[in-house]
Amino acid sequence: MERFSLKRKVAIVTGASGLIGKAFCEALKEAGAIVVAADIIETEELNDYYYHFTDITDELSVQKLADCVIKKFGRIDILVNNAAINDMFEDPKASLELSKFENYPLELWEKSLKVNLTGTFICSKIIGKQMLLNAKGSIINIASTYGITAPDQNLYIDLNGVQTFYKPPAYSASKGGVIMLSKFLASYWGKSGIRVNTLSPGGVENNQDAVFVEKYSDKTPLHRMASVDDYKGAIVFLASDASSYMTGANLIIDGGWTSW
Predict the structure, then answer these.
(1) Could you give the CA distance from residue 260 to residue 252 in angstroms, rounded to a whole number?
(2) Residues labelled catalytic
(3) Structural domain spans, the chain
């Protein structure tokens, strides 16, 4: 069990104020890590960690994060690239039309790729340089089942048979890119002692419409959506020496969603 320990390890979690991000911070701290919670939003839930304002799409902001962590703790052992966005439409009444691929705004496409994929690239590039100095590190990039399989648009049909929304293309494209970026970095940095893996979670239950939850559960062999606690063990495993011979892998935890 000692191989799962993160005692004296320094971990950075981006998107730390998000639903899964907070769970990742909790799990890493419970395993003994010093956790730096990086986000553009500071919440009370992050008071137990070292919070640092970070815009992952800005190289200078990420460099400041790395410099501050190195100055305070001397090294960076773990990076969890968790920060991401889902499309938000300003006018909910227009979301059905705007979410159709034929009408999908270029600006939303570019914004999702900038945060979800380019942000992962920037953080890996800058913080990975620091890991190179110690010839050791674990980078965990958070993708999604929607980076592996296409969204089932039937999930967004209500009880009256009306399509209320379409899951747009940028999320899937960006998360698929995260998976391939992880493989690239794993092969590129393998000889340098830096491991790079992907964690692809399934959908987390978070006050969604009851019809959606039921439909999602029916498509899942374990017949439920995930709770945030379902991913805590995985993040500790990937961060720790328990996964020391694992790199370039995509750990899928989805209740069986992608198995059929």
Answers:
(1) 13
(2) 171
(3) 2-259
Give dist(CA 148, CA 159) in Å, integer.
28
The number of beta carbons lying within 10 Å of the beta carbon of residue 53 is: 12
CB atoms within 10 A of CB 101: 8
Q: What pLDDT, in 10s, does the model give residues 195-231? A: 999 999 999 999 999 999 999 999 999 999 999 999 9
Enumerate the H helices of the chain as residue ranges: 19-30, 59-73, 95-99, 106-112, 119-134, 169-189, 210-218, 232-239
Q: Please say whether the beta carbons of 99 and 168 come within 8 A.
A: yes
Single-letter amino acid, residue 171: Y
Residue 129 near residue 69, CB atoms below 8 Å? no
Would you call 207 exposed, middle or buried from its count of C-beta atoms within 10 A (0-12, 13-18, 19+)? exposed
**Identity (one letter) of the amino acid at 137?**
G
Contacts of 96 (CB under 8 A, 6+ apart): 163, 164, 165, 166
Q: Which CATH class is domain 2-259?
A: alpha beta
Asked if residues 253 and 230 have their Cβ atoms less than 8 Å apart, the reply is: yes
Across 106-115, average pLDDT: 96
- Kindly report the pTM of this predicted structure: 0.95
d(CA 6, CA 238): 11
- Identify the residue whose tokens are 């705007």: 98
Quote the tokens at residue 40: 């553009």
Q: Are 137 and 150 in contact (CB under 8 A)?
A: no
